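ARCHIVE CARD
CATEGORY: sequence design from structure
SOURCE FIELD: tokenized fold
FIELD CONTENT:
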């Protein structure tokens, strides 16, 4: 049974100051923007997800009424929403993807209502619950992302870091730019082919393991010939995870002693379509391999772009670092969104790791170049 929402007390203690009015008007604008964002997202979805998003929009509408009632005649002209809410609204209108939900999740988690005496305890609790609701919706979207997409993100990051480290390490030895370019392209191909081969073998092996784990129809064909007293069929069902009592009952069904089919969950049913494991979508081996190859290569090529366009020496190395650094920030932010963490922190972490690895190989190249000289 739904709990009826009770309107909170709207009269603040004392006369509101100009700062209070300004803050409340900003809250009002942000609540309107958040409600609009959820409505935009709802238009791009159907079924239960659409209903949940519309319910969130209605909840933000109740919060909007709270601030409108507090302001009274001081509502004035509408304030502009915060930059964060304007960006979310723009993304929701244009895309409506899991990335927008991930950003909305973080926005709900930063609500100031818990610290503001003008907001009710119910409103602060609402925002906490909204964060969990959006987290659940974002998790659904994350789970629907295919294995090929994840392989693409991490493949691109591997290409960026490994080839930048290779180019910087070789460039620091003082060899010619042509040699650095050749080494970078060789590293690109070697890494991309290795990633593709590894992904193909991994996905194919996983599929084979899953196939090998599926029950077979041998219980149907062999049951009639089994010794009813020894009845190894019970062992089959116990090995599949049944309790001894359930296994004995299932074996009796298969041997024709019962006419019912009480627990078919651990037997193969060819007429039923196998459910897809949304949490860990395996994807196709060829698709995963092609995705890994392309995205590793797309990341690795960035490190050699300065040499392709004729830059040499320190200028080429600095340009490569800047280009790869920007790309690392992008992939780190994507990984942060997918994992529900801070995009900025993950982006900076990716940048630090990538440039740290490249810096280590550069110092090694310098030392090796001096020793050769």
């Amino acid at each position: 049974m739904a709990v009826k929402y009770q309107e909170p007390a709207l009269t603040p203690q004392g006369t509101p100051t100009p700062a209070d009015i300004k803050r409340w008007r900003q809250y009002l604008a942000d609540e309107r923007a958040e409600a609009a964002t959820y409505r935009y997202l709802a238009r791009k979805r159907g079924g239960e997800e659409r209903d949940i998003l519309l319910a969130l929009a209605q909840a933000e509408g109740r919060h909007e009424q709270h601030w409108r009632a507090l302001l009274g005649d001081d509502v004035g002209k509408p304030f502009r929403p915060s930059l964060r809410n304007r960006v979310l609204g723009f993304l929701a209108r244009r895309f409506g993807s899991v990335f927008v939900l991930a950003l909305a999740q973080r926005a709900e988690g930063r609500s100031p209502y818990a610290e503001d005496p003008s907001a009710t305890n119910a409103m602060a609790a609402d925002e906490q619950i909204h964060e969990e609701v959006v987290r659940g919706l974002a998790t659904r979207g994350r789970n629907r992302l295919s294995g090929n997409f994840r392989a693409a993100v991490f493949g691109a990051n591997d290409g960026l870091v490994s080839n930048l480290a290779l180019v910087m390490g070789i460039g620091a030895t003082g060899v010619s730019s042509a040699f650095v370019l050749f080494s970078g392209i060789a590293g690109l191909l070697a890494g991309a082919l290795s990633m593709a081969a590894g992904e193909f073998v991994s996905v194919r092996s996983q599929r084979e393991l899953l196939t090998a784990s599926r029950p077979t129809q041998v219980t149907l064909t062999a049951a009639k010939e089994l010794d009813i007293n020894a009845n190894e069929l019970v062992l089959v069902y116990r090995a599949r995870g049944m309790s001894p009592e359930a296994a004995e009952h299932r074996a009796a069904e298969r041997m024709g002693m019962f006419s019912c089919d009480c627990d078919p969950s651990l037997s193969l049913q060819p007429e039923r379509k196998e459910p897809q494991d949304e949490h860990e979508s395996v994807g196709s081996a060829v698709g995963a391999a092609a995705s890994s190859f392309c995205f590793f290569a797309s990341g690795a090529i960035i490190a050699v772009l300065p040499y392709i366009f004729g830059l040499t020496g320190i200028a080429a190395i600095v340009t490569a670092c800047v280009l790869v650094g920007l790309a690392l920030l992008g992939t780190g932010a994507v990984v942060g969104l997918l994992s529900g963490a801070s995009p900025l922190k993950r982006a900076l972490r990716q940048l630090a790791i990538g440039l740290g690895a490249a810096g280590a190989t550069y110092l090694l190249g310098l030392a090796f170049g001096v020793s050769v000289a």
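CARD ANNOTATION: Residues 177-213 form the longest helix (37 residues). Residues 1-12, 266-282 have pLDDT under 50 and may be disordered.
SHELF: design records, drawer C
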